[in-house]
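Q: Got a minute? One more chain.
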Amino acid sequence: MPYLIDAANLGGVLGGARGARDSAGVVAFLREWVRRRGRVVAVFDGPPDAAVADRYGPLEIEWSGAGRSADAAILRHLARGARGWIVVTDDRELARRSREAGAAVESASSFATRVPERRGRAQGGAAADGEKPAPSASELAHWRKTFGVDS
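A: Always. Here it is, folded:
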């Protein structure tokens, strides 16, 4: 099944406030997992980041553009045909509207824990290859509150 990922939302789950703005970090998190999947579209808020390519194999990167949200871009995708898509988000309103359109929904929190960790990452800490550490409990709590996710 193809995935539509609310990328800044997933970034917030992965790395708190900084993670929500870390498009390269979200892409790095998804790249190994996506090798074993079909089509995956990660949708970010705002204009394109020059440090991030448009495609990494089956991983497509989309930007909502200035003045538009990733949520709106995801809903435009679903308007063209939602059957078969899985939307990854912790945003309650986007999840509700995605289900109404006919897509399946997986929470970003669940997705982040389900996707296997990459080699080199120490349990609960920074990776050996210099990646940022896992989010703290307070960062996770902040983003769950922000996106209306019950703990």
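A: The first helix runs from residue 7 to 20.
Q: Perfect, thanks.
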